[in-house]
Each structure stands twice: as C-alpha cells, then as structure tokens.
Amino acid sequence: MTIDSLDPEDVDAADILGSAIERREDPALLTGNAEYTDDIQLDGMLHMAVVRSQYGHARLEDIDTSEAEAMEGVHGVYTYEDLTSDETPGGGSFALPTAWLLDSLEQVPHPVLASEKVRHQGDGIAVVVAEDRYTARDAAGAVDVAYERLDAVVHPSEAFADDAERLHDDAEGNVAFDWEIGDAEKTADAFADASHTASIDLENQLLIANAMEPRAAVAEYNPGTDELEVAMTTQNPHVHRLLMAGVIGHPEHKLSVRAPDVGGGFGSKIHHYADEALVAWCSMMHEAPVKWTATRSETYLTDAPGRGHETKAEIAMDDDGNIVGLRVDTMANMGAYLSTFAPAVPTYLYGTLLSGQYDIPAIYGHVKGAFTNVPPVDAYRGAGRPEASFLVERLVHLGAKEVGMDPVEFRKRNFVPDDAFPYETQVAVVYDSGEYGKPMDEALELLDYENFREEQERARDEGTYLGVGFSCYIEACGLAPSELAGQLGAQAGLWESSLVRMHPSGTVTAYCGTSGHGQGHGTTYAQIVANELGVPYDSVEVVEGDTDEIPQGMGTYGSRSAAVGGSSLVKSAQKVVEKGKEIAAHQLEADPDDIEFENGEYSVAGAPARSMSMADVAGAAYLAHDIPAEMEPGLEATSFYDPENFVFPFGTHAAIVEVDPDSGEIEIERYVAVDDVGNQINPKIVEGQIHGGIAQGVGQALYEGAEYDDNATLLTGSMQDYAVPKAEHIPEMETESTVTPSPHNPLGVKGVGEAGTIAAPQAIVNAVADALEPFGVDHIDMPMDAESVWSAVQANATADGGAEPAGDDADPGGER
Ligand code: MCN
C-alpha cells in the first residue's frame, strides 16, 4: 500500500497525531534553500586540509612541513607536536575519547593527529590552514612524510593470528575486548540434549555509510569573548560540544555546536572525529573562521564503517522443531582505534537481540573485538541489530531445513507467544510488547504463499529457480533508562530534553535535544505538540540541533527520537497545559480541579460556556496582569525524559527472488514488508523511513562492501568502486503495517528509522538460499554478487564440471 501525503489544512485538529501530513521540511530541501555546513561563508574565513596516511600501517619516521609552510597563501601547518606545545592554545587532551566502556576493554590512545604511528589509511598526520581550500589541499600534498611500512591486518581473524603485527602496545593479540552474554553451560547442555543442530560460518561485511553530504565543519572563534562557535555535520550537537570541549581544552559553556541542514548521517555523524575538533582548534589558533569539508574520497577513508563480523553460530532443535538453544561466537572488527560508541555496537546492541522473535530457552554469545588497520568502526544504520537479526534469521532458515519443516511453520512454532509479554529473553532484555504472528500472516497473505510454493515447484521443473526468504526481525531502540545504560557501560545518560514555549500570541516553539537529519522531525514533532496543546499544527515551530537554543540533548541515533524525544515533548507540553489550567481557573474563577482541557480549550466542568482558548491563556500568562499570586509569568516548560525501557519494533519482511545459476544473477521479483512500530505519529514518514532502510538493506545484501587489500589499502574508495545501489536496483516495495503500541512511553511508539535496514538483508539471502536449495547451497556471504552466487553453485558441481541440482529427486529438467 502506498500512503498519500495530506495537506495539514485538510486534517481535523483532533486527528493531527497519526495522520500522513506532508513533510514540512521538503520545500526548502528540494528548492535549494537548505543551508548545509559547506554553504556557510564568513568574512576572513580560512580553510583546513588534512594530511592523511597513505598506508594502512606504518611508523612515522619524519614529517617535513617546510615546503608546505613556505607556500603562498598558507597560514599554518600543524602536527601533533604543535597541538600539544606550550605555545599553542588549548590544553586539551587532543585524544578522542571512548564513551562506552566494557570491563575487558583495552582503552588505547587515539590522538587527533598521529604522532608515532599511523594505523589506518587516512589517519590524520598534519593539518594545513590556508587562504582557500585549493591552496590548503595543495599544501597538504606538499607535506613530506617518511614512513616505515608495517604489516597490516584487515579482518579480525588476521588480527588475532599469533604472528599478526600488533597495532597498539597495550593491546596484546590485538584484542580490544572479550565479552559474553547468556549462559554458556545451560546452552552447552541444550546442545548436548538436542535432536538436531544446524550451523553457519559467515562474514557480515564492512559497510560505508555514504551520506549524501560529506562531513564538514566551520568554526568561528571570537577572541573578544573567548566564544567558539562550531557549525558541523552532526547528529548530536550537545554530545559533540561536551566531547570537543575536552579534546581541544575549551570550556563547554563557551563552546557552541550547531547542526545546519545535514544531508544524511546513517550513524556516521554521531561519532566524534578528529577533523571537526581540529577545525575548532585552528580557528582559535588563527583567531579567524576556519572551514573544512571532506572530499568524497576522505569520507570513504575516514567515516566510521559499520558491521565487520566473522561469526560461527549454531542452533539446536528438539524432535518437534522447537528451538532449544542458540550459540554464537563472533569476532568483531573495531578498526584502528575505539570510536565514540563503538564498544556498545557488537556487544549490547548485538548480543541482546540474539533471541530474535523466538522463545529460546538457552542462548550464549561470545564476542571478541579486534583492532585492525581499517578506520575505526562504529554504528551504521542498525548498529549491531542488523548483525544479530541477520544471524538469527539465517540460523532459523537453516534450522527449519534441518528439521524438515516449512520455514514459516518453524518460525510460528517458535515465536514468543502473544501472552508472554513483557517477555524476558535469555540475553538480558525484556521485550515490551509484540504479536509476532500478525505481520507474518499479513506478509503471507500479500505473498499468496501457498500459491507461490506451487509456482516455485513448477518453475523448478522448467529450470527456473525462484526462492522466498523471510526475515522476522526484532529491533531494540530508544536505549534506556540511563541508569541501565550506565550499568552496561555508557558514559552518558540516554534521556532526552525538550522545551515547549507558548508565545503570547498563542503560537508555539518546540525545542528538542534530538537532531534530525532527514527523518522529518519538524513535521512529526509539530504533530505531537499540536495534539497535546490543541493548537493548530501550523502554529508550532520545531527547533533542533543547536546547543545555543536548546538547553541540553542527546541527539538522533538508535531510532530514539520519536520514543524518547517525542515523549519528552509530550511531557513538556503537558506541563504547559497544567500551568495553563491554573491560569484558566484563576481567570474563570473556578477551582483548577474543575477545569477541563480538550482540543485547546479550557472550560469549567458543567459550564462549557465559561471557557478560554490555549492562545488566550498564553496571552494572559505573559500579560501577567491577572494570574494566580505566586505564579511566575510566562508559559513554557522544560523536561528531561528518561524512558523506563527500550522499545522493540518488529515485523516480517519477505523477498521473492529469481536466481540464474548459470550467470549468478539475482532478480528481486517481490519485496513485502510488514512492520510494527507501535502507534505511528505520521504513517507517510514511517513508510519513507522503511523505504530508505530497505534500500540500504538491499545494498548490503547485493552490492555494498568495503574491500581492502592485504596492506589495508581501501579498494572501494569511490562511488565507482563501492556499489551503492541505484534506483533501478531497488525493488518495488509492498509495505503494510500492524500496530502494537509500546506500553513504555506516552505515545505508544516504537522506532522506525532503522527497521528496514535491519530486516532486509536476511530476507534476500534466505530467498537466494531457498532458490538454490536444489544445488545444495546453504549460505552465500554478502554482498551476493553474481560471481559469489555462481561460485557457490559451482562448488556443488558434478564431476563433469556442470552445476546440477543436488539430491536424487531434484532434477531441474528443462534447460538452464
Ligand atoms: N515516527 C513515526 N511513528 C513512529 C516512529 C517514528 O511517525 N512510530 C517518525 C518520527 O517521528 C521521525 C521518524 O519517524 O520523524 C524516525 O523516527 P525514529 O524511528 O525515532 O528515528 P530517529 O528520528 O531517531 O532517526 C534515527 C534513525 C537512524 S538511527 C538512522 S541510522 C537513520 C534514520 O533514522 N538515518 C537517516 N533515518 C534516516 N533518514 C534519513 N533521511 N537520513 C538518515 O541519515
């Protein structure tokens, strides 16, 4: 079903929440009126360029900056020595912090510029500040760096090899951490008693985010006030302000961070990178505005990639097809240093979802993080959850096959039952609400599943290989509460803050500490606030992404904005309504307990004619001529909302593919997605988020992957080489939804921003495995390009070299 956008004028005020209002942010974005960081031009602005390591792993023997310094238009060239010298401003740590700790974590230093060693291609070595960006880049090219090359490692399994070159002196064996979840003994017993087991050995490849807008920053230091303003591509300005204050040694209250329009992030703009901090420092150093914008090549070399798992896992079943155990052993690529939230991704965001949608009595997960010579790995859309969901759904596919059951029947047999919620898994989380059969049934109906199976048989007889794959995914978002996050290692609270301000004329500005960058918060937050206050939708303005405007905030990632930011806005708006009630009671000469509030009107119970509108109350609050004694004038409220639990969206995605075993080509014939993200604030935006997410999931399944050679040199460093799917590669998506509200927030919402990306890859891989079942192909690592599919088919080739279906009764007939 495709949802039509609605003009807000055509929607009744009472229906504003839950309606598919058109996105109010689009006109500016589509007509060239957006303001991106690189659009900012300031008088006297200088430009920064970064000298980056050519090599994946090397010792720095010498950095000669003399030629660059002598170039016309160059204002300065700085190395780590310069940053930390007594003669330069700052006094910061000049090292990037890790904001998520684990007991076994080896916290290695991550200097903003390398001083002794470079540990990945693109590692910063020096910065140049010059009149214009071209001079800056030319001068960066003139910095002469002498390297002593060292052996490099790309994959965790290489990093852990006995003879691997060590990246950090303190990280023995290149081990970043060693972490486990669940019950090893109970799971071993479950496997010992099981009637059937199935296993998998897979790689979940490294991906690069490819946000449309590269990272950029403009910093402006005012020597008169000592204030430093940074505009940058960020998903979480307040977090960047806090971290940057420590890195460059500038007080937090004299530092402001603002996100202008941001052209996508997908996680890659959460993390605190060196470059933005260096821009800020250079601005202080030169007492002038300084800009840096990454080239596309720089984003490939330095944006944190995501995923990067090597995993062995197994599933155990009893005779009736009940899953009795699941065991996982993963090596996770952490890259050269620990990025901001990196340790959380392959541990708590991954291990806690290993139960999937299933009631599994024994689970054990073991994860070992590896330092390697790729850029620091961190969250990329889904972050840990796609890896978990992929693994569980691949195992479930294989488990069903092992016990000889239809994959749908097997899943349904093992779903957490509807009456078991809240459901405590064996891996430390409590699912809030769920009805897992509903999206599955809806998907089966859309697919016309029974008929498809018959068609599949007929097609096989004719030598056409169709397959259907399911993905019954679960996701955790709105990580919470802060106390729990702290126990798990977060070095930050995970609340969200907002301010709802009524203006004297009755219009409203809603400020939220999240920082949207494509998700349509301007629209959905206005819907939430208009609904709570009963004011017209168009009278609500939404402000995000600026530490000077919004008291505090944690930002946008982990599909938290609706569940946590939205709930914070509800809380602030309700405080405004409550204060308004006292003003109305005072003016209407009634007891506050007798005042009713509905659709923006305060009225006296039983005497509806005695009423005041929200706008009248706002006017009275600021006029302050006649408000209750002791009451402060004004009508606004701030909240810090700390959720009581995560929210757990879920759904069933299914793909039908045709695979040509001779060429290895895969065609996605149909893609069906039925998602349950709780109550929907705006179904059109939900649909858009699902679409975008699926596109990225299709990218992972079929096209994308960061490839490095043995020296850790990136081979896929441009859009020519890194295959981001184009529109023609994305299937027609048939989307539907079910609604199971979350009991854990006042809106009953669950997150949607990552659902499609989490769900899609395994639907497609399962479908390909289903299509190639006659050839005995159980698994193909992603991206499943034509060569890997063809090779998998050939691996089962018969002695005469021709690939034929395996098994006695699977003769394809026909021609292939
Ligand atoms: N929403 C809704 N009803 C719900 C849930 C959400 O109407 N039940 C709306 C929200 O109000 C919001 C949007 O859907 O307008 C997404 O909400 P949410 O799921 O809370 O996710 P966030 O806003 O926190 O966005 C983060 C999420 C993540 S983690 C990645 S990665 C991602 C994504 O959003 N990156 C994106 N979507 C993206 N979309 C764009 N265009 N660009 C990115 O970089």
From TrEMBL:
Alphabetical list of Pfam families matching this protein: Ald_Xan_dh_C, MoCoBD_1, MoCoBD_2
SMART domains reported for this sequence: Ald_Xan_dh_C
Aldehyde oxidase/xanthine dehydrogenase a/b hammerhead domain: residues covered: 31-151
Compositionally biased intervals (Acidic residues): 806-816
Keyword Flavoprotein annotated: no
Keywords for the protein's UniProt record, in alphabetical order: Molybdenum, Oxidoreductase
Gene Ontology molecular-function annotations: iron ion binding; oxidoreductase activity
Positions of region (Disordered): 794-816
Domain of life: Archaea
PANTHER family associated with the record: ALDEHYDE OXIDASE 1-RELATED, XANTHINE DEHYDROGENASE
Protein name: Carbon-monoxide dehydrogenase large subunit
UniProt source species: Haloarchaeobius iranensis
